[in-house]
Specification:
The structure holds 2 protein chains of 2 kinds. In chain A, the strands form 4 sheets. In chain A, strands 9-10-11-12-13-3-4-5-6-7-8-14 form a 12-stranded mixed sheet. Chain A has 6 helices and 21 strands. Chain A is an alpha+beta fold. Chain B has 6 helices and no strands. Among the domains of chain B are: 52 residues; 31 residues, no CATH class. Chain B is rod-shaped, with a radius of gyration of 52 Å. Chain B is mainly alpha-helical. In chain B, 74% of the residues lie in helices and 0% in strands. The chains are: A alpha+beta, B mainly alpha.
Amino acid sequence: MKTRFRSNLVSASAVAFALSTSAAWARTEDGPSPVLNYAMQSYGTQRYVGSRIVAFRRDGTDKRRTEYVTADGRRMRTEYPPDSDAAGQIVVETSGERREFFPNQNVIRISGGRESELSRLSSFLRRMGDRVRIKETGARSVAGRPGREVTLSDPDGNLRQRLVVDDATGLVLKRELFDSVGTVVARFEFIRLEFRDRIDPRLFRLVRKGARIIRPFDELKSIIAGTPFVLAEFPPDSGFKLEFSRLMNPPEGKVLLQLYKGEEGRVSLFQTLAEVAPGQLRRFGREEVKTLSWRSRDRYFALVGNVPAATLERLKRLIVISP
Amino acid sequence: MSHFDERAAPSELDTAEGLKISSLVANLDDESPSLAWRSDLNETLRAESNRLQRRRRVVFWLRPAMGLAFAASLMGVVFLRSVAESPSSNSLEAKLVSEFRAVAASSEVAGPTAVAGVELASSRGGSSDRSQEDEMWNQLVDENAISL
């Protein structure tokens, strides 16, 4: 009882502190958005155990998973129920790296660490300024917890993102991302959530003797073997880390996609066999997505990202191409 | 004194040659143009006037027509260019941008391997001897954990 009282007191103080110091850049039409600023400032401060539904659209089909998550600040452990297509996988994310264990192949995949998705959102909001309309649309309850809903729309009023922020802790309880025609392309929602005072730190270690370690760069090398594509990458000091690579097969010919993640946002490096028209690419990118394309060594390259145009120019200069 | 000084002219006309030319001009017959010649001249002038009128009429219509044709061809070029450059949702460029939007949004929420659809992400089926052995170990752990 005493612990719960102390916990509530801490939460209430956190809310008061966050509201009093909320930055003025996450603004609604009527002024700053205290709820969104509170969520951003509280990111990585919560300890909890819970279940959440994660869903996204991929290649025209909806994919849905249940995740069991345990989080302590910026560290998170994710497991999957026995009937999931990811059953047996364990994901441990820290600020330094993300480790995924795949039991069937006895493989641990190591990639870039967990960064605040909300810090990327905040840099996006700073960049877009008044071109993002933020609205606080009232109280919403998620997983039995009272929260507040915030929506982000483009200047034409198209809904692009919806979040529900926990009143007591600032945790994002639900998040939905919409495409340009209003379809939900990715979302998560907690269905069970319990805040804790302490989480066993051993849960955030993922070590297995005998497991093969692979990294996204190893996958890239294996993907391009036997294809006409060259090994192109951003150097480690570029600030962007490779998340994954995949081959696409549109009628125009094979396309290699490499997705990178950085504090500023995400960037895709494409290699294509068919010509990419810079003007058309730009038109599709519109405001929030910047593009850059060029030709080199009989191949066409394109950078597409939700980062400033200057960042794409910088990344283009930094690309290292191995024959 | 200038070579073309006006004061020099009368003295030059007073030369023998100048006087000879002057008397030849004075003795010329005063011929009045014949009617036939005048008629020919009138015909020629009328014909020339008709030709000029026709030309003026042609120019009157041709000039705006040429302007119109130029404007039309300019519009045609602009239109064709815009058609050639108009973003088709089925073009390669559209696919690249839409693929980026899809993977960036999904990766943000579900993590990269779930989105990439890499073979590793499928933990079910095709299990190796190693994983079967691992499964047996896990069962042993579970059974013992229950009895704890």
